[in-house]
Structures are given as C-alpha cells and as structure tokens.
Amino acid sequence: MPAQGKNRRSLSRRLALIGTTGAAAVVLPLTAAAGAHAAAPEAAPQKAATTYTVMKGDTLAKIARTHHVDGGWKKLFEINKKAVGADPGVIKPGLKLSLKAAAAAPAVQSAPADSGWTAPVVGVKGGGYGNSGSLWSHGHTGADFPVPTGTSVKAVSNGTVVAAGDGGAYGNQIVIKHGDGHYSQYGHLSSIGVSVGQTVTEGQQIGLSGATGNVTGPHLHFEVRTGPDYGSDIDPLAFLAQHGVNA
Ligand SMILES: [Zn+2]
Prior knowledge:
Layout: H1 2-9, H2 11-18, H3 23-27, H4 30-43, E1 51-53, H5 60-66, H6 72-79, H7 81-84, E2 96-98, H8 104-109, E3 143-145, E4 152-154, E5 159-166, E6 172-178, E7 183-189, E8 191-192, E9 199-200, E10 205-208, E11 220-225, E12 233-234, H9 236-242
Antiparallel strand pairs: 1-2, 3-11, 4-10, 5-6, 5-9, 6-7, 7-11, 8-10, 11-12
C-alpha cells in the first residue's frame, strides 16, 4: 500500500497514464480494492446508507448528488478527506466513503474553550456529590476538590456575587448567580476576594481555598444550585460536563 499511496500523490504522472487506455487501472490500487469492489453490489443497498463504496466512474459530485449529501461534494470531500487524499478529483474504486459527518461530536467537544464555563480549580478532579457521611446531615450537597489551602478558586462562569462571608458549616463561602439562572457556591475558603454585588467573569479568581467551617482537612467544596440557598443543589460535575467542562 505505501507504494500506491506515493503513486496517488503523483498527479501529473497519473494523468499522463490515464490518457492511455487501461493504464489508470495500473495506477489505481485495484489489487487491494478488488475485494471491496466485488462486494459493492451487495453492500450498496445498505439500509441507512451512511457509507458508500466507490465504483468505477464515480465522482464525489455524482455520489453527493445521488445520496443527497448536505453540502454537496465539498462536504463529502471534507468528511472523507483522510480517505480521499488531497485531490477531490480522484477517488479510487473500492474506497469506502462516509456519507454523513459522523464527526459532529468532535465539533461539539472543541467548544469548551469558549463554552463560557470553567472548572473552579485547575488540575484537580472533584468528586463526592451525594455521598452520605457524618459531615453532611442530608448527604453531600457539592463536589469536593482536594486542594491545599491557598489554591486559587475561580468563578466557573460570568455572574454576580450574591453571598460572600461566613456560611456556617461552609466556612467562608461565596455564592455567584449566573446568567442562566444557576448559582455556584464555593466553601471552606481561607480568603474571600470579592464582595456582594460584584460582577465576576469566567475564570476570575474570587478567593483562595482553605479549611474553614465543617471540614476534616483543606479542600474546596463546590456546589451548583438552581436557587441561591442550601438545598437546591444539583450534581455540579454533571452540570459542568454539560457545559463541556471536565472537572
Ligand atoms: Zn464538600
């Protein structure tokens, strides 16, 4: 196959060969494609028809037309660029093409950079939402991030500070109201860097983690709530994950 790959790249040479009857078949990797090609007639009436095996005489334009590919041959080429190679004008019989951009998921996954949300601390995984234990009377209402005292704590999204001060069992806490109606809460802080009414932006440092309140050791306790107060918590890591943040 590597030798054939090289041949495919040599466009001028191939075009010259195509001019002579049958010579194109010499250049096209029919040896490898023969099996797939032979199977094509049976494979053709596939139900959902998400793939297509190139037949002799096919062009991307023709395939795009026949299979109603959204975006036409350009889209078809884009979807199959890896298989087709650099030249959309040349497709080999036997080549399997995807008719749909199954790669829609990666496009979504590239969104986190500007999803508007970020993790409350960098480099450490949170966990423990819903756990039961002696520290929580009604189950654990947030996720704990095991970070040492003094770690920078960031606003997970743009918002307005609605609480900043002593939160009882939460120790020094901050609550931020976000534009989508959710609230984020940060507990056990050693230092609070914002005040009520202040506007904060995604990723802005709002305080430092610590071990104030009801704790067995330093960590950030982080909640996402549907309202400003204790008890309206939802799974904060699932919420962040929905916004493309793996925290
Ligand atoms: Zn906690």
